[in-house]
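Support request from a user on the community tier.

User writes: "When I paste my structure tokens into the form, the page sometimes reloads and wipes my input. The last time it worked, I copied everything first. Here is what I submitted, just in case something in the input itself triggers the reload:"
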């Protein structure tokens, strides 16, 4: 018999991550999340980050710019994109933005979706090594 782990998730009751994402269905090797009505960043884009998972996404509404490994990709309704695992990247939200992403392996497992940037992670490591 095949795997019988079948799930239905109602996004109205989905848990939220610390970056504002709603966690949707999750399997053993892939998970989905929803970024819903993310406000414009007004030039205050987040610092580059690297994640140990691969991401694919689809824009439902709004506009954003993805900065990834020296490339600039404009995203708008109907576009899809990929971010390879361990690629340095950040998003700049230009208009209220709603998108679905799938991550593999699942982003929310084993602390993979922590919101620390590489700079913050480096500062945490330095503080730990210094004993503070």
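"...and here is what came back when it finally went through:"
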């Amino acid at each position: 018999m095949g795997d019988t782990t079948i799930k239905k998730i109602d996004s109205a009751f989905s848990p939220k991550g610390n970056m504002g994402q709603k966690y949707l269905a999750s399997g053993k090797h892939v998970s989905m999340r929803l970024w819903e009505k993310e406000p414009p960043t007004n030039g205050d884009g987040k610092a580059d980050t690297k994640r140990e998972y691969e991401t694919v996404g689809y824009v439902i509404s709004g506009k954003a710019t993805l900065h990834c490994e020296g490339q600039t990709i404009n995203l708008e309704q109907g576009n899809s994109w990929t971010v390879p695992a361990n690629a340095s990247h950040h998003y700049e939200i230009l208009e209220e933005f709603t998108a679905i992403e799938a991550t593999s392996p699942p982003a929310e497992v084993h602390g993979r979706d922590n919101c620390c940037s590489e700079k913050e992670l480096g500062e945490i490591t330095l503080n730990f090594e210094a004993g503070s």
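Agent notes: The reload is a front-end session timeout and is unrelated to the input. Confidence is low (pLDDT under 50) at residues 115-132. Helices lie at 118-130. Escalated to web team.
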